[in-house]
Amino acid sequence: MSETPAGGWVVVAWAPDVYGSVALDWALADAERRDRGVVVVNASRGDALVDDRFALEEQVSELERRLTESGRPHEIRQSIDPDVAGAVLDAAEQLEAKLIVVGLRRRTPVGKLLMGSVAQRILLGAACPVLSVKPGSVPD
Amino acid sequence: MENFELLMGGLESALTPMNLLYAAIGVLLGTFVGVLPGIGPAMAIALLLPVTYRLEPTSAFIMFAGLYYGGMYGGSTTSILLNTPGESASVMTALEGNRMARAGRGAQALATAAVGSFVAGTIGTILVAFFSPALADVAVELGAPSYFALMVLALVMTTTVLGTSALRGFAALFLGLTIGLVGLDLNTGQPRLTFGVTQLVDRLDIVVVAVGIFALGEALWVAAHLRRRPAHVIPVGRPWLSRDDWGRSWKPWLRGTAFGFPFGALPAGGAEIPTFLSYLTERKLSKHNEFGKGAIEGVAGPEAANNASAAGMFVPMLALGLPVTATAAVMLSALQGYGITPGPQLMTDHADLVWTLLASLLIGNTLLLVLNLPLAPLWARLLRIPRPQLYAGILFFACLGAYATNLDPFDIGLLVAFGLLGLMMRRFGLPVLPLILGVILGPLMETKLREALTISGGDYGGLLNEPLAVVVYVLIALFILGRPFIARARARADESASVEDEKEQVH
User: Fold this and answer.
1) Which CATH number does A9-133 carry?
2) How many whole angstroms separate alpha carbon B154 and alpha carbon B306?
3) Is residue B502 part of a domain?
């Protein structure tokens, strides 16, 4: 773990899909602007045999490359955790993060009722500001 | 050609809309349980047993046959796309199949597995139709001593061939034989191992034992290892084969069938050895030098061998009443549930059932090919089901089934006890098959043993007064003496072809 950057840390709830990718875009933009470091959290409940949102080694090294290119201090945390939102919140609390970034999917209220949501749990549980972004948006 | 006519007659009665529906349900359910590692056709049939007691035996067996073949096929999908073979028979498929999938040839691997299974299953079923009646004719003449010897052979072979350790095999076998002893002694009417519990006098219901060991044991085992590093399914489109793939596949299919069927029919049981032999043969014969990088022959051969041995299993089951796999054992107990005595007389007393069953195997096989080629990508999605939900469903059916057998809460208690036993067996690496065979064959063996001893007036020499019995005992002795050599040859071969261990992360 590198020194805490001057502006503190940004925590990204990341998965190898469009939501993770747009969240990472915004997190890097914010880190650039405010001299912050980026901590990427990728977690899975690990109770199904297959979970596409848990990154493979290739995807992690791809992520690592992108973070290195950005030149910001960074760290990748991958874990198997029954509570995926909890893994993100724990990281934010431990690092006293200044911001959490989550990629959000569009859902109807009924869909929300049925599926629950990691993003919602993060929004409700976070102590710091949370930036939620949808695919298609570009950091200005 | 008489057998052929009988088979056609069976086909006629199997081709009713109702029976086709049961075949389709069986095939779909079978693929479902086959795709998910840890759940196999034996568990599925055990869970379905109480449900099917209301059905005609023919319909139930049509469904079971579909389930069995479907389970065999489903296992190959998981092996190829995920590299987690659900059972020992698919280990060899995983070897080349997963490499093919990683090289972007997953669709071809799935297709050669599906068509190979179809070819091997069809040839195998036709061979069953021709061999079983002949074998049953011979078997009717056999006396109790020969029968007893054959059962000992089946138990010794399955116990020592499968699994890593003969000691563990025998431990499981004797556990099974002991469970088979519980209840009223049929000759003297004495209660044995009942500990004064009235419910135990009635003998243990095989449904409760099988569901406890298979379903509950597996559920507890999974619960203990719930969280693990998830994998990714390699995306594939619709399976298809190019001309070149057909050309490279058809010979391995036929060779695999030739390996698989005899091994399936022998009491040595299981598809582990023939799939392995088929893999080695194809590797030796291959002109393409692609083995280790995803050779289509390495999927086609073992997958055909796997299904041919699945078909071969029906020969001893139908002709002799001898189960050699866990699924056959559960199917046999289903027969007993209908009040049908398995044995050589089955072919004549219940000819319609047997021929309809064989015909429905052919139908199930065709349905598998038709359904599974287009559905393969859908089956792969099943692997995303979170296990807590999946096993909750299984536990629900397990408890329902155990309770439904006698409508007695005592059976739920028994179910839990056997579930814990199943968990312990998995924990300590005891194979499940010898236990189930012991439970089912134990009482049959005892009957034959006592019959033989009654005839000879209590003289143990009476066990040897049939030539076949003597031959079988000699075979058993040779086998036990030769075991160290077989084990060494296998260890050497295993080194050359080892599968990646599942990465397991327990929290």
Assistant:
1) 3.40.50.620
2) 19
3) no
Q: Is the pTM of this model over 0.95?
A: no
Range of the domain at B364: 2-496
Amino acid at B138: V
Domain ranges of chain A: 9-133
Query: Smallest CA–CA separation between A33 and chain B, in Å?
Result: 36
Q: Does B84 touch chain A (CB under 8 A)?
A: yes
Is B226 part of the contact surface with chain A (CB cutoff 8 Å)? yes
Number of CB atoms found within 10 A of residue B479's CB: 16
Furthest C-alpha separation in chain B: 69
CB contact under 8 A, A50 and B383: yes
Q: Which residues pair with A75 in a beta bridge?
A: A39
**Does residue B313 contact residue B328 with C-beta atoms inside 8 Å?**
yes
Please list the residues that pair with A12 across neighbouring strands.
A40, A101
Structural domain tally of chain B?
A: 1
Q: Which residue has the tokens 């030739």?
A: B258
Judged by CB atoms within 8 Å, which residues 486-505 of B form the interface with A? Answer: 505
**Shortest alpha-carbon distance between residue A44 and chain B (Å):** 8
Task: Round to whole Å and give the CA distance between B224 and B38.
Answer: 14
Q: Is the dihedral of CA B3, B9, B15, B20 positive or negative?
A: negative
Q: Is residue B507 part of a domain?
A: no
Does residue B166 lie within any of the structural domains? yes
Residue of A nearest to B502 (CA): A49
Please report whether residue B77 resides in a domain.
Answer: yes
Write the pLDDT tens digit of every residue in B455-489: 888 888 878 888 888 888 988 888 888 777 766 76
- Kindly state whether A48 is in contact with chain B, defined as any CB-CB distance less than 8 angstroms: yes
Residues of chain A positioned with their CB less than 8 A from the CB of B233:
50, 52
Cβ contact, residue pair A49, B82, below 8 Å: yes
Q: Which of B434, B127, B167 is nearest to B308 (CA)?
A: B127
Residue closest to B154 by CA, chosen among B263, B266, B42, B314 = B266
Q: Where are the beta strands (DSSP E) in chain A?
A: 9-13, 37-44, 74-80, 99-103, 130-133
Q: Is B235 part of the contact surface with chain A (CB cutoff 8 Å)?
A: no
The distance from CA B242 to its chain's CA centroid, rounded to whole angstroms, is 32
Token pair 């040897």 is found at B464
Residue B504 — pLDDT band, cuts 50, 70, 90? very low
Structure confidence at residue B415 as a pLDDT band (50, 70, 90) = very high
- For B405, the token pair is 């057998």
